[in-house]
């Protein structure tokens, strides 16, 4: 079990890497960020450029959707706390955090606190989806695309497993099979980094080796579709230190109805989506100059994608900070 005072350092470090070069008014509040992208607008766009623009739309819509989920969760918590839920995501979630702090300050004696523990969310990425997306973009076979799984590869890792290989059956690497080991094949669950093709699920994130546009397409496609478990939340308190039971009970109900969803979104944003965003942001900056001679339409679409960077970045930060603010208010930590 993990306490809720998880840090923002990991995601904010990723976002800091991309803070220059983007711009324009961003989300939250609506898709598009500082520009508008239509993958089908340019008939002369190459398959790779079109694939990248598709990834741009997918990433933007996914991040906007996750922020909407965060706002809905905070709204549900606000209802349990008996406060208004007007305003944008940051306003609503900050109001919830403030109400939780006020309730616990009035409802529990002295320095006593709620005990809030949770089993962390686990996000699983389908590495096959990444391979298929990259292959289609590159116009070649999926088997020729290398997908590195950081986490646990649930299927066959047909490459080097930098970690523990939980192979099954005889003749497998790690189970007495010298031939497979010599070839660097795991052919079982790789609990570490699978530096090759990982079939099945990948508990962590998928990193693809392909051209810039196709890498972005593959990683966005696979990582934003990652399925994350909802954390198992346990909230408890010592009844002997309670001085206002209704306020404490309302707070506990609010946490139960909203905090697991907030933590689930946070895990997805800090894990697989953060990797996809980093790859996408690096690609869109590189393409700005590379497509300057490709025609006004393509150049305009890439400029539109670059204009969305700031909005996507802002929405991701808002969603993660909301989770940290609310969970920190419950545990008495700074987040």
Description:
52% of the residues lie in helices and 16% in strands. With 335 residues, it is α+β, with helices and mostly antiparallel strands. The chain has a 6-stranded antiparallel beta sheet. A 3-stranded antiparallel beta sheet has the order 1-2-9, with helices on one face. Mean pLDDT is 78; it is low at 1-34 and 168-184.
Work out the helix count: 9
**Basic shape:** flat
Strand line-up in the sheet with most strands? 5-6-4-7-3-8
**Structural class of the secondary structure composition?**
alpha+beta
Q: How widely separated are the two ends?
A: 17 Å
SSE string, helices as H and strands as E: EHHHEEHEEHEEHEEHHH
Our count of domains comes out at 2
Computed over alpha carbons, the radius of gyration is 23 Å
Biggest β-sheet description: 6 strands, antiparallel
**Can you give the mean pLDDT?**
78
List keywords for this structure.
2 domains, single chain, flat, three-stranded antiparallel β-sheet, disordered N terminus, six-stranded antiparallel β-sheet, 335 residues, alpha+beta, 16% strand
Brief description of this entry?
The chain is α+β, with helices and mostly antiparallel strands.
List the helices and strands and how they pair.
Layout: E1 2-3, H1 9-17, H2 47-81, H3 89-107, E2 115-119, E3 123-126, H4 127-138, E4 146-153, E5 160-167, H5 178-182, E6 188-196, E7 201-209, H6 212-224, E8 227-228, E9 232-236, H7 245-290, H8 296-307, H9 309-331
Antiparallel strand pairs: 1-2, 2-9, 3-7, 3-8, 4-6, 4-7, 5-6
